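CATEGORY: protein folding

GOAL: derive structure tokens
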Amino acid sequence: MKTVKICIAGLGNVGSHVVDSLSQNEKYIVDKTLIKFEIKGISAKNRNKKRIFNCDHFKWYENPFDLINNSKSDIFIELIGEEKGISYELIKIALNKKLHVITANKALIAKHGNDLFKIAEHNNVLLLF
């Protein structure tokens, strides 16, 4: 069985459901794919916000840049949703650190995708959306 380490920034509706789905369906995913997704860290603006999962079960990073630099992940999932700003910077840093990136940020991909895809290609990693 292969283990894939992921970190997630942005725990709104989509981010919370990603964490919850991976947690609740771990056995099913492993049985079907022989891949275990291990959440190495999570980050969001407000740790105390009520969510559909318990944040205490995961390593919390106050600063999402620390999430990328210190979580030893294979994949960075960006679900913050800003068109530029922190979302762009996090994705760019993750790609340059040779992390695969997944985002649901359509506006960011539409405006800055060409630049980010070049960085991903240069570092031989995937930028998926």
About this structure: The mean pLDDT is 96. Residues 85 and 108 are 10 Å apart (CA to CA). Helices lie at 13-24, 26-33, 64-70, 85-96, 106-122. The radius of gyration is 14 Å.
